[in-house]
Design brief:
mainly alpha; 4 helices; single chain
Length: 91
């Protein structure tokens, strides 16, 4: 995947970050997670044009279940056929 500029319509879903300083390769996990968890149809369309299914599946499977919204997690886990890591309740 080539580095791609993050469009302004994606910025609201990355509100804590300066999108001009985000790199689509280096910050892949952060971008994918935020857009899948909080994004709009337009932002997810952009996401799917920039990242491969493997990239998205990797983020879904490695981001702890506890940080996802339940609805987002249910939708994207179903669509991509992966489950996120579960954190142990007791260590």
């Amino acid at each position: 995947m080539q580095n791609s500029e993050i469009p302004k319509f994606v910025a609201p879903f990355l509100w804590s970050y300066d999108i001009k300083k985000l790199d689509t390769q280096t910050h892949r996990q952060l971008i994918i997670y935020n857009i899948l968890n909080f994004g709009s149809k337009r932002s997810t369309d952009w996401l799917f044009s920039v990242y491969s299914n493997n990239d998205i599946q990797e983020v879904l499977s490695t981001t702890p279940e506890s940080v996802w919204s339940k609805k987002s997690l249910a939708l994207w886990s179903f669509i991509f056929g992966v489950s996120p890591v579960r954190e142990a309740r007791f260590s």
